[in-house]
Amino acid sequence: MISQARPDLPNHGLYVLLAISVVFLLLSLYFFGEQKPGSPAAQWAAAIGAIALLAPFVFSLLKRSGYSASPPLWFVVHVLCASLGVWLIMLHVAGGDWFSPPGVVLLLMMFLLVQGILLRASVSERFSGLFASGSRVQGFEKPETLDTGVLEELISAKVALLAALDPEASEALFSPTLRHWLIHPVLSLRYQLLANKEAAMIGARQGAGLLLVWSRRIHILAAALFYAGLLAHIIVVLFFAGYAAGDGGIDWWYLTDWGTR
Q1: Contact yes or no for 66/90 (Cβ under 8 A)
Q2: What's the N-to-C CA distance of the chain in angstroms?
Q3: Nearest-CA neighbor of 198 among 175, 166, 164?
Q4: Rounded CA gap, 132 and 236, in Å?
Q5: How far apart are CA 103 and CA 32, in angstroms?
Q6: Best label site of 112, 167, 208, 243, fewest CB within 10 Å?
Q7: pLDDT per residue over 74-90, tens digit each?
Q8: What is the rounded CA–CA span in Å between residue 87 and residue 174?
Q9: What is the pTM of this model?
Q10: Do the Cβ atoms of 195 and 162 come closer than 8 Å?
Q11: Which residues contact 51 (CB under 8 A, 6 or more apart)?
């Protein structure tokens, strides 16, 4: 049987994406300053860019719902669409004010891109496994003080819970997905607490590395804040255009001008 190659982005490709992003950032700051964010071209760039930036959100949902047949492929789509979205948003904000509430959203966007690419490239397979599959990282060493009796009881409790949560799943590989959390929230929480306790006992997080664990948490938190900020910005410019314009004129397409002084 011929095995298919695992979809992936090489490190040099990631660095190229980062370099292109820096170029777009410099262009937006220094060369495209006369282009207003509300101009037709800038609005189209914003619309397409926002759609492209939804790919990482869809990737996260598919990964956590268990419906992604190929998480590595979706991770590649995640990175490419996110980079395209960032480039288009850079064109949209050219000439805009970075020292404003929307500027915070821009900083979060750039942080996500830089953090994701640098950490993915710097720790390679270990980081990609944690980000792309959400599975447990293997390769940790057995602690010298491990109580095997307590560990066996803990695993037995997990197996008993799994029989009600997902009978066809394997305890060694299972992790609650979004589907499990929505259908069986209490069972999922109990199972996750047991899994966390097991990981602490056997030193799984030390094996994976604190950098990986906390980088993933920070990335997810920053992404949640970014999408909340992006949604708030879209609502404000579409429905509260008068407020967004302040003392100036509304030079973009909008639905209502609530907030006009």
Answers
A1: no
A2: 70
A3: 175
A4: 33
A5: 17
A6: 167
A7: 788 888 999 999 999 98
A8: 37
A9: 0.71
A10: no
A11: 85
In one-letter notation, the amino acid at residue 39 is: S
Q: Can you read off the two tokens belonging to residue 162?
A: 């799994």
Residue 158 tokens read as 């997990």
pLDDT digits (tens, 9 = 90+) for 19-50: 999 888 888 877 665 667 778 888 899 999 99
User: Residues with Cβ < 8 Å from 161, sequence gap 6 or more?
Assistant: 187, 190, 191, 194
Q: What are phi and psi of 83, to 5 degrees?
A: -65, -45
Q: Which structure tokens are listed for 20? A: 């292109």
Contact between 52 and 83 (Cβ < 8 Å): no
**Residues 52, 82: contact at Cβ < 8 Å?**
yes
Structure tokens of 22? 């820096």
| CA atoms of 223 and 213, how far apart (whole Å) | 16
